[in-house]
Amino acid sequence: MAYLHGISVLIVVISTVFCKKQPNIIFIIGDDVGWNDVGYNNPVFRTPNIDSLAKNGVKLNNYYTGEVCVPSRNMLMSGRYSIRLGLQNNKIAEHPRSLPLDEVTMAEKLKESGYSTHLVGKWHCGFYKEKCLPYNRGFDTFFGYLTAVVDHYTHKYNDHIWDLRNMTVNEGPRYNGHYSTHLFTREAQRLIEQHDPDKPMFLYLAYTSNHEELEVPSKYKAPFRGKIKDKDRLTLAAMSSCLDEGIGQVIDTLKKRGLYDNSVIVFISDNGGATTFGGNNWPLKGAKLSLWEGGVHVPAFVHSPLLKENVRGTLCNELFHVTDWLPTLVHLAGGTLHGTKPLDGYNQWNTIREGVGTHRNEALITINQHYIIKTPDPSYDKTYKMYSSNRHFDVRMHAAIRSGKWKLLTGGQGDHVWTKPPEMTKDVPDVGEVPYEAVYLYDIERDPEERNNLALHHTDKVKELLKVLGEYLKGAVEPNENMMPRIDYDRMNGLMGPWVK
User: Fold this and answer.
1) Which residue, 57, 83, 46, is CA-closest to 268?
2) What is the pLDDT of residue 480?
3) Could you read off the pLDDT of 247-262 as tens digits, one per residue?
């Protein structure tokens, strides 16, 4: 189907280990960019740079991530599932939680391999202690936000406190009124322009578009007036165009510095689009915060002059997960994984560059021990009646796993709908009322839209995967999302930062 030709909203630039010179790595991630929020999946959207990079690269058609920012970004940095980190949910800004300090980050491993390491944009891996901050987790420089829901113009968190910093310096007052996407693009360009070409670069460019607040300079809205009537959707389309413009400018700067030919570009989103804030994942079901495909199956691709000719412009249907980037990039850098905890990610470079099969056949999406639905009525929910007595896993618990062509979901899922984009003019059939059930099993290869629950027809497969979930649960860390002490703004002197010594 045409919509399966998607790419993730994160861009990484990487050189390959088969070159004598270590590759540059530019990793660009879009925030809340849904399946239907890029031009190659939606012709109404104007993202020519993203589209061109994807068209001439390798699209990762089975790329999975977390359902919301915190688990996704912490899995990315660590190469480990969120259940190992105790970060299965999004509560990190106002509680003393972070990527555990005994975890080794992607930036630390690349720095160990001789890279200059830079973070521009959104961190969202915790900041309650000084040791949690990006420049103490492997990054040489940091310009951006520690949290989410930061105003794109004022750079204040929840309209309360500045959250734009250059290392330890509060840049909020200086850049008040400057649009975040423009700021992050210019900083990325500056770093590339000033980079020593004799040293490899890792640039993690974590844009905050398309995350709310829905704000963008008005000039980006003009092309969509008359095409998109919904106000939020129009603004989000404009934000996507601004994001795409910034990505194009960064790539142009790489070319001008002569760095592009020794680089790889990866583009992903941290999670699916937020349909309550203009995002869209059509024709996939669900949205950000859900474990349906629309929440966790996002656009992703790799682009590089270093890719073999025969894989450029191809669609890779092998299974990928956000945890795979750490081992893949460290391999490209010529580094080792010594010192890391056991990783859940796989080195996928041969799959990307050679087009060979992956070693990954399974991807745990999440298990959240603190999200358990009310016990269903077995006279209404036949799946609960069928599987509630299994001894391996409580089917009321919020969880999902992809295994081969199969996807199993348990517990409450939320946003149990397919959201038609406002700009779509053709009629689509009404799917009718979809029953809420405790257990769902889908053949994703045949049913990527998750319309036909097979849980009552493939009982052996369901029981097999419930046993797998039970094994994962044995090693899962409690989320502990309400840890104390809560954030103390009085300790921060006007700039978002640590409050625990």
Assistant:
1) 57
2) 77
3) 999 999 999 999 999 9
385: left (phi over 0), alpha (psi -120 to 50) or beta: alpha
Q: Is 227 helix (H, G, I), strand (E, B) or coil?
A: coil
Give the model's confidence band at 200: pLDDT under 50 very low, under 70 low, under 90 confident, else very high. very high
Tokens of 155: 């750079």
Residues 6 or more apart whose CB falls under 8 angstroms from that of 38 comprise: 6, 7, 9, 45, 47, 50, 51, 54, 240, 299
- Catalytic site residue from 118, 124, 155, 195: 124
Confidence of residue 91 (pLDDT cuts 50, 70, 90): confident
Is there a catalytic annotation at residue 316? no
The yes-or-no verdict on residue 499 having pLDDT over 90 is yes
Cα angle 360, 25, 65 (rounded to 5 degrees) comes to 40
DSSP run (H or E) holding 51: helix 48-55
Which of 69, 125, 132, 316 is catalytic? The answer is 69
Alpha-carbon dihedral sign for residues 482, 483, 489, 495:
negative
What single DSSP character describes residue 410?
E
124 given a catalytic annotation: yes
Q: Which residues of 411-475 form beta strands (DSSP E)? A: 439-443
